[in-house]
Specification:
There is one protein chain. The chain is 32% helix and 27% strand. The protein has two domains: 38-89 and 230-433, Aminopeptidase (3-Layer(aba) Sandwich), CATH 3.40.630.10; 92-225, Glucose Oxidase, domain 1, CATH 3.50.30.30. Strand 9 (246-252), helix 6 and strand 10 (285-291) form a beta-alpha-beta unit. It is built from ten helices and 16 strands.
């Protein structure tokens, strides 16, 4: 058999083709990895890990477990990881109920809680909307239907302060909202909003309490528990490229409940970006921060921007992934919520003014996020801390889904496909607005 002759030209062609084939193979592998990284299966698996850690109150067992898991993930992605500890309040309830004769109605203690003592507080129930004095009474404040989030919200703060100023010895807030549950409310860490016992009542349980309050019926409020301060931690990851500008991505991880829908989508997207960005933005320093203490009016975020954030002038972009980044929508029916496969549109995408139109193009067709707004129109949550610190090029998402701050904010409050679509949107937004070498 005659061996084929291989001339110099054939060898040269083969030598050129091999690197091209290798490059194509590597590009294909990178594309495949990126597809999986931002795919619904992986994102939802990370969200499930977060949800399975249980209650996420700052400094508690679920928050600590989540911090450890996130630190390991950052380290595996090549980040140098550190922890930033700080003090947070805590309160664990042993008893919180209202007795109306033989009927006992479950309440939820609102931190920072003032206790009643073991004997409880016996007093008439009165509706706070009466114009009369409330001296010595347990005042019932009925909040209008909303997705409630914070005690410092004027619509909560003012009727509460009014009831206390008219002599109420305790206040029960009915947190009327779509879930029908009692909703714990964010509060400042340094002072109680009320020096009197303050409890929350689920609207689905409120009918007998409201009826008793209409007639000034006697009741006994018992609020007992233990509390103090404990350590919480911000988890911080850095990829350093000396002399290069910074990119920052932040997300909170703590909250009053399991927070699967409130915090989980932001956590899952943040983890995907932590794996993706070191390769794509190789000419930038990277800062990834995951904050605790959110439920104490952005306490962890304030520590980040004060002590950890890079100089704003050296920062090309800061992305913040806040509440309801990609949570399931529901049909509201009397007494129940029917799940939908789409994302809840009650989420707000805010960017610095120069990126608004680009963000609208990228998120087109995604409920709520499709209409990006300039942050100069006003922001909320931890994005406000970022902007206040002087980071002029930024984007962030925040909102409140129908199980926001409710004990029903569990894994079922998230759908995988909208989560993946949102993650790809933020990936594409970063690709569009951050210059990279070509």
């Amino acid at each position: 058999m005659t061996r084929p002759v291989t001339d110099r030209r054939t060898l040269l062609k083969a030598g050129l083709a091999a690197p091209l084939a290798l490059q194509a193979s590597n590009a294909g592998a990178a594309d495949s990895k990126e597809i999986a990284m931002f795919g619904p299966e992986r994102l939802f698996a990370d969200l499930k890990t977060y949800a399975d850690a249980g209650n996420k109150q700052a400094g508690g067992a679920g928050d600590r477990a989540t911090a450890d898991w996130i630190a390991k993930r950052l380290a595996a992605a090549g980040f140098t990881v550190e922890r930033q500890p700080f003090d947070v309040p805590w309160f664990e309830t042993s008893q919180c109920e209202l007795a109306l004769g033989d009927l006992k109605v479950a309440l939820v203690a609102q931190p920072l809680a003032a206790e009643t003592g073991a004997a409880g507080l016996e007093a008439p129930l009165l509706l706070a909307e009466t114009a009369e004095r409330l001296d010595g009474a347990i005042a019932v404040v009925r909040l209008p239907h909303r997705r409630w989030s914070s005690l410092v919200d004027r619509a909560v703060r003012e009727p509460l302060a009014d009831a206390l100023s008219r002599g109420a010895s305790a206040v029960i807030l009915v947190t009327t909202g779509p879930s029908g549950e009692a909703l714990l409310l964010n509060t400042p860490a340094d002072r109680p909003i009320s020096d009197k016992p303050l409890a929350l009542l689920a609207p689905r349980l409120a009918a007998p309490v409201i009826e008793a309050a209409r007639h000034g019926k006697p009741a006994r409020l018992t609020l007992l528990g233990s509390g103090g301060t404990r350590k919480a931690e911000n988890v911080i990851g850095r990829r350093l490229r000396p002399g290069r500008p910074w990119l920052a991505v932040s997300t909170p991880r703590s909250g009053w409940t399991d927070c699967a829908g409130e915090r989980g989508p932001g956590i899952a997207i943040w983890l995907a970006l932590a794996d993706w960005m070191p390769r794509v933005f190789a000419e930038h320093n990277l800062l990834f921060v995951c904050n605790s203490g959110h439920e104490y009016e952005n306490l962890g975020a304030s520590h980040i921007v004060e002590a950890i954030g890079p100089p704003p002038a050296e920062t090309d972009f800061w992305l913040h992934l806040g509440a309801n980044a990609a949570t399931r929508d529901y049909q509201e029916m009397p007494g129940r919520l029917l799940p939908l496969p789409s994302a809840d549109p009650f989420r707000f995408l805010m960017t610095s003014p120069e990126y608004v139109e680009r963000a609208r193009e990228i998120f087109k067709g995604q409920p709520g996020a499709e209409m990006a707004y300039p942050s100069s129109d006003g922001t909320a949550g931890e994005l406000s801390e970022v902007i206040k610190a002087g980071y002029t090029r930024h984007a962030g998402v925040f909102g409140a889904h129908r199980h926001h701050h409710a004990p029903t904010d569990i894994l079922s409050s998230v759908a995988a496909e909208p989560l993946a679509a949102t993650a790809r949107g933020f990936r594409d937004l970063l690709s569009a607005v951050i210059p990279t070498p070509r």
